[in-house]
Amino acid sequence: xxMPTVPFSDLSKHSKRVAETVERVHRVHIKRRDGEDLFISxxxxxxxxxxxxxxxxxxxxxxxxxxxxxxxxxHALPRVFPWVRHLSGDERQQxxxxxxDATHDAIDLDVHATLHRVIVEWRATxxxxxxxxxxxxxxQQLPDEDHGEVLAP
Length: 153
Description:
This is Prevent-host-death family protein. It is built from seven helices and three strands; from the N terminus they run βααββααααα. By secondary structure, the chain is mainly alpha-helical. The protein folds into two domains: 5-41; 49-139.
């Protein structure tokens, strides 16, 4: 079943209908013109989604805690992230370690953005490595000049 989308401006006019829809489908996408979109869900559905994410995170964490599990994850990695074929063996190991750390953040700290960031950053690395000209350009020796401190964005 696809999730219904409701314009933000319709919420107040049709709040009863929106509430009935949420009860029926458990989650509604609220489209906004002047801000980030929202989701409205039932509390039960949200708890179930959190539990599903926690179970999956704990499963990955448990797999990565043993050498055999790490081998299984390494074998499965290209099916989950096809772009890992552009990473070296050491880079794949580092990606797995970063996934493990981010998974622990999700489980222990309820911080899910770290996992998203890890995947985005490693996918960007793979995209660069997939383009030999770009890889050569970005890995060439830099001049010995010092241009000063680089400030954080």
